[in-house]
Each structure stands twice: as structure tokens, then as C-alpha cells.
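Quick entry between incubations.
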Amino acid sequence: MRIPRGLRPLAESLAAVFLGFMAGGVLVWAFGHSPLAVYRALLVGAFGSREDLLETLAFATPLLLTALTFAVGVRAGLFNIGAEGQVYLGAVGAAFVAGSLPLPPGVHLLMATLAGMTAGALWALVPAVLKAWRGVHEVISTIMCNWIALYLSMYLAIHFLAEPGRAERTIPALPTARYPVLSEESTLTAVLFVAVGFALLVYAVLWGTRMGYELRLAGENPDAARYAGVRPERVVVLSLAIGGTAAGLAGASQVIGRPPAWSLYATLGNVATLGFDGIGVALVGRNHPLGAVLAAILFGALTQGGRLMEYEVGVLSELVRALNGIVVFAMAVPELWNLVRGRLIR
Amino acid sequence: MWSRIVLALAVAAALMAHGAGTDAAPGPFKIAVVSDVGGRGDLSFNDMAFKGGEDAERDFGVRMVELVSKVEADYVPNLTRAARDPNVRLVVGVGFLLSDALAQVARRFPDKNFVGIDTFAQTIVKQKFPAQYPLPNLMDVVYEEHKGSALVGALGALLAAQYARPHIGGVFGIEIPVLWKFEIGYKWGARWATEWLAKNRPEKAFSYRKDFVLWTYTGTFSDIPKGYAAAKAMYAKNAVAVFNIAGPLGLGINQAVQEIAQAQRLRMGPPFWIGVDANQDWINPGFVIASMMKRVDRGVYYTTRWVRDGQFRDLVHRTQGVVTLGIGTRIAGQLAEGISVSTLEDLDEFIRMGLQAERMTRKKVLPAPPAEIKSKVKTMRNAQPRWVWDAVAELEKKIREAQVTVPMVVTKPDIERWRGELGSRPDRWPAMAHRPFQP
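Done. Structure below.
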């Protein structure tokens, strides 16, 4: 059977999903659980009721954004792992505007969202400038920036934004700076629509504009791009800035778009690991903005459905995580293979 | 004839419908324990809550389900997941970080009972939804940490007298009001002991000085090297014992003690350290003089009993939803305590906890076989003069009978006033001391 070329990535991913779930099944079977019962719980726990579905989407929202960060980088030929730190600063920016600046309704929410996105983008400019004009490899600079961002954000959160008497978190967002909760049954808010809208926008820019074409061309073939007059500095700055904006929005979404705390924890606990998880989501989503949305929903389902696995079937929480890891790894293999092959051929 | 059969069937149907409608529990009585991000295996706060659930399983025939939170975003979904189980009658959230989530989820499930350990969920309800305050199905369980801290403060000062040392120390975490309760309690207890000495052991007596207690807020509950650096500076000033009020930073304090012990080939303190929350005496037997125990397990155990006996909502109503466990506290006519200084008898219970952690993690947790730990702790306790323990017991009795009042400090003006009286200058310590741990 011949598969049309355009659908090949999808077919590969589906095959990988199948293999991943098979391997995960063997793992839980080895620990004495029935794979069928485990996967039933996963499915029911993630999609079985309206509130589970909404919670799945709530967990998917920030991940689809951090996946965009990595995906746009890869499309431009960059290995950007700086989403983690950009998420932190995005959260700090949003927490500051949302909690400390009294603004009229509507404007406040907009400003808080923009503050998060801007903070993320500005933080991404550091490795962008280093790469574009000094040739510093983005893997090194983004990892270093992540650590600086961690301690800088904790410092800002504890010393300038902390709620008096509750040092564990920042001043919560004022009601005017909160995304409306979609249903009392879950922690999902309207920030989901902003996130999906952003993904569509990125898709439109990458495949519908000259700027996006140049970016992808530079990623596919840097030499050809340079020959065609594409300025590499521009591509580096643009792709990292888009990524930083997405990551900043992801951080903001957990502060002004996620009840019940509406604030950033001083430990950064409610935004930590979102950036790194986004790399996995992007690989599963084949580094495509729309793939990122689907892959993020899958990740959200593993988190939310994993809860019922733990609760109903009694799977140890560590085993839930291991199982999720295996599934994700298997699904990321096709894209990882593409990346590696691309480097080898070059 | 037919009409009678119809009638009988109708009665039977009515009875069955009635049976299904009441609380005549269709399934087993389940309780759910939702941990904070510390999770299983912390050997103190969260493990204590699960231990309380296990004790309730043993004594009340309930079944416990565990939900471990991996990230802060898990709190609401975990509490919700538990509350949706029709057999779960009590949901316990462990740790003050769950306060917001408990307030939210408890409002959504008015038929289920919710308990928070160390939380202030009812205060949040009062601020956000004043019309619903106090929520009838929500209880915050809090502890009298100041009283327990006073006891170990006294113990430290008595040891300072016995070994003629100039200081005791306290390593604190992030400066939040709960920790002020520990701080002032500890200093107050030390001063009480100096007064006791003047009366009962004049040959050992010394007068309380404001720099007697060395204390410092490290600003962290997780950065173990900071606990090490802070404690090392205190032992360098010859502190006889250092109180751990920063959870895992106790391991850093222990490291500082261990270095001195190795350098001087000691088999027993001084120097000592003082454990917190759980009985931590087994972590380094011979060098942990005692622990200020905050019985999180009792909180889970008692509240399960109240739900089982149908007293829970009445208690919430009478207490505005906040129950305090401490020394000599009584609830519904029964003794319900949650604060004590560790004894040799407690040790078995906590060695069992260590053994269980070893089985679960397949890693070495206990420093020695249980019998050896126990004999070392016993030797250490017996090596201290009797009057030291007697004085601590006397203070406990006085607190219990309300003959003395330990100040409970949770506000800014209060902490400033009490620091003015008992010591207001924090200890200085080098921030970048030698780091024995990899970050």
C-alpha cells in the first residue's frame, strides 16, 4: 500500500504511537497490572467526562506554546532549548502587571498578557544576539540563560512580588487581569483560545509570509538561503523572538489563566519543567504548529489520565511517569531520526 | 391477591430506593490523602500523613487511596479526582500550599468532607466567599508549634548549662508567620530554662542573654548546603545544639555535626541537633538529642475518626472550621494532641517508617540496624543527667495545666516586640562556605 507523501509523517507518527503503547503495556504488565485496565483508565481519565476533557486541555495549553518555541527554532535550523527560562520570565512579567498595576478591565488582561510575552521575547534576545553577531552556539547560551532566569525569577518573585504574609507566592492577579474560567469543573480558562490562536498565527506566518518562507529556507538549506539573499542574523533573531514570545505566553498562562492560585509560586513550581516538556511535545508534533496542538493534547491526556491510572488501577505514580516517558519517547523517535539524519547528511 | 403482590413489590421497591438513598455506605468507607509536591519518601511531612492514613486503616477499617502531586497544577485535579469517587467520604490535603485548592474544591462538593493539614482554607473562604463562611464540610488542622518549640528550647538551654556552652542555635527556612511561632517559642523556652536553673540548680545557672540563641533564616526549605553553612557557623561559636526548623536542611545540619564528630572522634554529642516534624532521632543516633514532633499523622487519624463517628460537621460548626492540635488540647471531650518531644517509645514507629521507605525505594535509609539505632539513642539519653529531662517534663506539665503561657506569635508587631525582649540580631554566616553537596 502506498501512502500519499503528505500523509507520511502522520502515518509514521501513528505507527510510533502504537509501538509506544505496546512497549508501555509490556512495562505495566511486568509490574503485575493488566495493560487493558491501565489504558482504559488512561482513556477514561483523560476524555471520559466533560470535566476530564477540560482538565486535559488545561494541561495541554502551556505545553502547546512551549512546543512552538522549539518547533520554530528547528524550522529555522536552531536547537533552541531556552523555553524553560523564557517561561519563568514570562510568568514574572505577567505576575507583576497583573498583581501590582491597577488598570481598567480588559486593558489590564491585555497588558498582563503582553507583559508576559514581551518578557519572554526579551529574554530570548540574549541568545539571539549572541548567536547572530558572535556565533555563540544556541544550545550553550540557552542552557546558561535558563539557569540565570531561574535564580533571577526566584529573586524577583521573593523580593519584589511576594504577597505579604504569604512568602510562598507572588501577589495574586487582580480580578481584572484574570482569564475567565470556562467551567467551575476544571482549571481551564479562556487563555486556551489565545494559545491556539497564537499557534495558528505562527502557522500563518511560517507558511504564508515571505518572512516565514525565509525562515524555513534558512533552516532547510542555509547556503541556498544565503545565496538567495536571506540575512541569517534576521532569521536567528526572528525565530528566537517568536519562540520567546510563545514561551512567555506559556508562563503568563499559568499565572493569569489558571485557578486557584492566580500567582507565581516562589519556587516557580507552577511553571517549572513546562519549557523542557515542550521539546518532547514539539518532537511528537513533528515540529509543526498544528502538530504541536495535537501533541500537547496528547501530553495533557497522559497527565490527566495518569491520575485515574494511579487512582483506580493503583499504578505507582513513578510507574505512571515511566509509562508516559516510554510512550512519548517512542512517538518522538521519527522526528528525532529526521533531525539526526539531517545533520548526518549535512 | 394481585393487589397484595403489587403492594408487597411496591413496599420492597420503596425500601430498596430508601436504602440506596441514605448513607448506608454502598461501598467501603474510603479516605483519600493528597500530598503536596514533596510527595512520598520525604520521611517527614507527607510520609507522616500517609502513616496517619495507614493507622486509620488498621483501627477503623477504612481504605486509604493516595494521590501524589507532582506539580502545583495537580492540586485541584487530584482533590477533584478523589472527591468524585462515590466511596470517598474524606479528602485530606497535606500542606499549606493546598489551601487555595481545598477552598475551591470543597465548595464544589458539599457532600464530601475535606481536611487540610497546616492550611488556612477557611480564611480564604472568608475573604473570597464571605457568604459561605465557614464552609460546613471543610476543616483546617493546625498545630501549636510554639509550645513544642518551647520544650526543645528549654532542653537546649539545660544542655548548655550541663556542658558549660555559651549558645544554642536555630536554623530556620523561609520567614513566614508559622516559623515565627517556632522562633519565639524556642527562645522563650530557653529563657524559661535559665529561670528554672536559677531556682533548682544554682551551681549550673546562668542568666539569659539576648545573644544566647543563635538564629538565622536561610530563606529556603530545600537548599541543604545553606543549612550546613548556617549550622557550621553556630557550632563554630560552640553552640551545644542546633534546632532544625527547615525540613530537609536538617541533613545539612547533620553534615556539620558529623564533621565535628569525625574530627574529634566522638561517638555521641555534644554537639547535638534537634529534629522537627517527625521523630528524626534515628538519622544520626547519638547526635540528635530529641525531635519536636508535629504529628501530621494524628491530624489524619483524628479527622477520619470524626467522620466515621458522624461528629465532623458538628465540630466544623463549633470551631469555625479550624481545629488546633497541641499539648493537652481536647476536642469533643477527648484528648486530641499533636505536639510532643520525641521519646524512646516513639522511635520504633519511625524506624518502621524508615524500613518501609527502604522497601519502597530499594535504597539504604536507616544508618544502622534498628536494634543498634535504638541502643545508641538510649545510651545518649541516659548519658544526660536526670534533672535535664525532669525539667523538660516539668515545663510540659506546666504548659498542659496552663500554669505558664508560651507566646504564640504570628503578626509583625508581635514578632518585633518579642525579638526586642528575647534577642533581635540574627546570626551571621558565610553564604559561600565550603559546599559538601553537589547542587
